[in-house]
UniProtKB/TrEMBL annotation:
<comment type="similarity">
    <text>Belongs to the UbiA prenyltransferase family. Protoheme IX farnesyltransferase subfamily.</text>
</comment>
<feature type="transmembrane region" description="Helical">
    <location>
        <begin position="221"/>
        <end position="242"/>
    </location>
</feature>
<feature type="transmembrane region" description="Helical">
    <location>
        <begin position="99"/>
        <end position="122"/>
    </location>
</feature>
<feature type="transmembrane region" description="Helical">
    <location>
        <begin position="281"/>
        <end position="302"/>
    </location>
</feature>
<keyword id="KW-1003">Cell membrane</keyword>
<feature type="transmembrane region" description="Helical">
    <location>
        <begin position="32"/>
        <end position="52"/>
    </location>
</feature>
<comment type="function">
    <text>Converts heme B (protoheme IX) to heme O by substitution of the vinyl group on carbon 2 of heme B porphyrin ring with a hydroxyethyl farnesyl side group.</text>
</comment>
<dbReference type="InterPro" id="IPR000537">
    <property type="entry name" value="UbiA_prenyltransferase"/>
</dbReference>
<keyword id="KW-0350">Heme biosynthesis</keyword>
<dbReference type="InterPro" id="IPR044878">
    <property type="entry name" value="UbiA_sf"/>
</dbReference>
<dbReference type="Pfam" id="PF01040">
    <property type="entry name" value="UbiA"/>
</dbReference>
<dbReference type="GO" id="GO:0008495">
    <property type="term" value="F:protoheme IX farnesyltransferase activity"/>
</dbReference>
<dbReference type="GO" id="GO:0005886">
    <property type="term" value="C:plasma membrane"/>
</dbReference>
<dbReference type="InterPro" id="IPR006369">
    <property type="entry name" value="Protohaem_IX_farnesylTrfase"/>
</dbReference>
<feature type="transmembrane region" description="Helical">
    <location>
        <begin position="58"/>
        <end position="78"/>
    </location>
</feature>
<feature type="transmembrane region" description="Helical">
    <location>
        <begin position="178"/>
        <end position="200"/>
    </location>
</feature>
<keyword id="KW-0812">Transmembrane</keyword>
């Protein structure tokens, strides 16, 4: 009796419902984690001229994926109150009370411990600690503090989401190479236009949940200017892998086209107020990053020079 009095309303509701694996799967943000893993895989492949050892490939991706999933589950727990206010997220398992806070936290712990052990025992200590730091950066620093504190939340918090190419690289070599940091810089510069495009579309919901996202605090016009600014910056950053000799012609052509496409979307968003364009820009950002990293991979194995 005393124990049930200590349980939250959500825990009580969840305690009566049969556990559904789909809810647990959903809490791991599988599509986001898949894209993070693609960037990690590319980091691994670019780290070596040869083939990535199969054991490092499997254990590295498993460890990074499990820790990123754990971070996503913690995000569902910490944010369950604001998630329940927003149309996009009100149906999430913890927000809806389909999974209890305690259950979700045990799940996050299990994922986190397994992922960390996997990296520590089968990959290397550097990768294990930097991946754990990324988890803390996203689930702790971004979700618990920055998200509610400043409209620059995602610029700073974006570092955690940008880390996987470095994690993949360190998994293979055990050290931090400037080329790996270049890949991090690409994802880091990509993140603000990726997220602010969505935040423009969901501005009213963020305002209702009292989250200081840039379109809420500084308005849509200002946010659109910065979306365009970051895509232009991404265009410049995109030349660095070629200029530093990390990548070759296939990358140069592919990345220039993709980045020009992103600038075009951002330009349209800023100057021709087409309905639904913010969401189109957001969706394009996801395809853009996916294709960009596939292009990096193809270019690595087919290094064409002038
Ligand atoms: C702090 C940094 C980031 C923020 C604030 C952010 C924000 C978001 C938000 C709010 C969504 C949900 C859209 C929806 O539910 O309709 C989303 C979707 C997505 N994000 Fe990000 N993102 C960040 C970084 C990243 C990174 C680094 C990646 C991958 C490399 C990524 C990949 C994706 C993907 C694939 C989706 C689509 C998920 C789906 O359709 O279920 N994001 N992002
Ligand atoms: C270990 C490691 C690599 C960690 C990275 C973790 C990770 C899942 C990063 C992705 C960033 C992301 C989806 C942010 C959205 O959070 P949000 O709370 O603003 O969005 P939401 O409202 O959709 O939850």
């Amino acid at each position: 009796m005393a124990k049930s009095a200590e349980l939250t309303e959500h825990d009580q509701e969840a305690a009566h419902a049969p556990l559904n694996w789909r809810h647990f799967y959903e809490m791991t943000k599988p599509k986001v984690v898949m894209l993070l893993l693609l960037t990690a895989l590319v980091g691994m492949c670019l780290a070596t001229p040869g083939l990535v050892p199969a054991d490092i490939l499997v254990a590295g991706l498993m460890g990074i994926g499990l820790l990123a999933s754990s971070a996503a589950v913690i995000n569902h727990v910490v944010d369950h109150k604001i998630d329940s206010i927003m149309a996009r997220t009100y149906n999430r398992p913890v927000a809806k009370g389909k999974v209890g806070v305690g259950q979700a936290l045990w799940f996050a712990l299990a994922l986190g411990v397994t992922g960390f052990a996997c990296l520590m025992l089968l990959v290397n200590t550097l990768t294990a600690w930097v991946t754990l730091a990324s988890l803390v950066g996203y689930a702790g620093v971004y979700t618990m503090f920055l998200k509610r504190a400043t409209p620059q939340n995602i610029v700073i918090g974006g570092l955690a989401g940008a880390a996987p190419p470095l994690l993949g690289w360190t998994a293979v070599t055990g050290d931090i190479h400037p080329h790996a940091l270049l890949l991090v810089l690409i994802v880091f510069t990509w993140t603000p236009p990726h997220f602010w495009a969505l935040a423009i579309h969901r501005k009213k919901e963020y305002a209702r949940a009292d989250i200081p996202m840039l379109p809420v605090t500084h308005g849509e016009a200002f946010t659109k200017t910065w979306v365009l600014g970051y895509t232009a910056l991404l265009m410049l950053v995109g030349f660095l892998p070629y200029l530093t000799g990390m990548s070759y012609l296939i990358y140069l052509v592919g990345s220039t086209l993709l980045n020009a496409g992103f600038v075009w979307y951002a330009w349209q968003l800023k100057f021709s107020d087409k309905p639904g364009w913010a969401m189109k820009t957001f969706r394009f950002s996801i395809v853009h990053l996916m294709v960009l990293f596939v292009v990096l991979l193809i270019d690595h194995y087919i290094p064409i020079t002038l």
